[in-house]
Amino acid sequence: GRTNVIKLLLKRQDVDVNRRTPNGRTALHFAARLVNMDAATLLAQADGVNVEARNNIGMTPLALAVAQSEVKSVAYLIDDLKFDIHTRDDKGRSLTLIAAAHSGIHMLKELLNRGFDVNDKDSEGKTPLVHYAE
């Protein structure tokens, strides 16, 4: 299936694993957002890959998965692929704040259960509680 195609493409010397779409997403952004863990693993381990690539609003693949409320994908990216949990987007939002701004309760609970800071602030001084109260 798709995994075999990704393997084939990644074997090519001329493949650009960090190639971006017009909105700044890489293949890894899509794999993380769509909970395609086989693809995410292959892409994250590819030579020259930038696992911290940011889309046009400053979100890494992990941050995008948080924004899409993909709990399984986020757990996999953090636990298995060891993605940077201290990433912030262009608005200075941590993963907890991205969850508060874009996701449901399940994603926020997942992050808080992992010890993420409930009182973290973005560049405007907003906490997760403020985001939910807005």
UniProtKB/TrEMBL annotation:
Q: Which PANTHER family match?
A: ANKYRIN REPEAT AND PROTEIN KINASE DOMAIN-CONTAINING PROTEIN, ANKYRIN REPEAT-CONTAINING PROTEIN-RELATED
> Upper lineage ranks?
Eukaryota, Fungi, Dikarya, Ascomycota, Pezizomycotina
Sorted alphabetically, which keywords does the UniProt record give? ANK repeat, Repeat
InterPro entries documented for this protein: Ankyrin_rpt, Ankyrin_rpt-contain_sf
Q: Does the keyword Cytoplasm apply?
A: no
* Coiled coil start-end: none
Keyword set includes ATP-binding = no
Could you tell me which species this protein originates from? Answer: Amniculicola lignicola CBS 123094
Spans of ANK repeats, please give. Answer: 23-56, 91-123
**One Pfam family in the UniProt entry:** Ank_2
For this entry, the protein name equals Ankyrin
Q: Which residues form the signal peptide?
A: none
